[in-house]
């Protein structure tokens, strides 16, 4: 897929120059993708985003200086931000959930086959989540696994308070997103038009103060588990 102005523009962020070179070779070999800049740490990533205005940032997690999760939150707090896809060797709960809560739309491991990384970039560029099986498992485990009762109550209470700001129809839409449904599937479930679904999702994003569908799903799961 291409953006309206041409190929999807990508900033590659990784502290390993060889990794950056390898990713550039793979991505620039695709007719609908182009690497516009590289960055070696979070601060360089922020500067590259401001200068090049990419569509997607391919973000490492562990880097010297500002780490990828902190940089992701900073980048996504700015007007008209790009989408962020985390690409890392680490799949711990802290990294996966930290990246998604910061607003990353996808999380893929570096040992993922190149063709799947390319597909994940295209998916994220379209505004859809892209999670590796390992990352998906981490999210499910975090939502359903054991926690201290006090911690669980605190998280549930905060998430429930956010959901309480939504109308009943908006909550139904948020729950459908948490179930992994696309817009047309949500429209069929709720017996409304796709245009109505899109409008409700916009309202939900604003009221919950989140950036994407993954974060909506996390709020719903926190409130109901």
Automatic annotation (TrEMBL):
PROSITE patterns (alphabetical) = HTH_LUXR_1, HTH_LUXR_2, RESPONSE_REGULATORY
Q: Which Gene3D superfamilies match?
A: 3.40.50.2300
InterPro entries found in the cross-reference section: CheY-like_superfamily, NreC/VraR/RcsB-like_REC, Sig_transdc_resp-reg_C-effctor, Sig_transdc_resp-reg_receiver, Tscrpt_reg_LuxR_C, WalR-like
**An annotated GO BP:** regulation of DNA-templated transcription
**Which Pfam families does the entry link to?**
GerE (PF00196), Response_reg (PF00072)
Residues annotated as domain Response regulatory: 9-125
Instruction: Extract the GO molecular function terms from the UniProt entry.
Output: DNA binding
Q: Which domain of life is it from?
A: Bacteria
Q: List, for all copies, the residue spans of the domain called HTH luxR-type.
A: 159-224
Q: Which residues carry this modification: 4-aspartylphosphate?
A: 60
Alphabetical list of PANTHER family matching this protein: TRANSCRIPTIONAL REGULATORY PROTEIN NARL-RELATED, TWO-COMPONENT RESPONSE REGULATOR
- The protein here is known as DNA-binding NarL/FixJ family response regulator
């Amino acid at each position: 897929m291409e953006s309206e102005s041409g190929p999807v523009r990508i900033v590659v962020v990784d502290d390993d120059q060889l990794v950056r070179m390898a990713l550039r070779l793979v991505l620039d070999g695709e007719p609908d993708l182009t690497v516009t800049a590289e960055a070696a740490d979070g601060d360089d990533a922020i500067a590259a985003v401001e200068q090049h205005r990419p569509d997607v940032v391919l973000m490492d997690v562990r880097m010297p200086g500002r780490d990828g999760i902190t940089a992701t939150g900073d980048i996504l707090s700015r007007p008209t931000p790009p989408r962020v896809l985390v690409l890392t060797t680490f799949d711990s709960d802290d990294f996966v959930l930290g990246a998604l809560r910061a607003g990353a739309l996808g999380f893929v491991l570096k040992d993922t086959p190149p063709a799947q990384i390319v597909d994940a970039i295209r998916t994220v560029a379209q505004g859809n989540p892209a999670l590796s099986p390992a990352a998906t498992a981490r999210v499910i485990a975090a939502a359903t696994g054991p926690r201290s009762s006090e911690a669980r109550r605190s998280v549930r209470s905060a998430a429930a308070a956010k959901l309480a700001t939504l109308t009943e129809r908006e909550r139904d839409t948020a729950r459908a997103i948490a179930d992994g449904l696309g817009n047309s599937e949500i429209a069929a479930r709720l017996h409304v038009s796709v245009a109505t679904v899109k409008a409700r999702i916009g309202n939900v994003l604003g009221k919950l103060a989140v950036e994407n569908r993954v974060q909506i799903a996390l709020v719903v799961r926190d409130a109901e588990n």
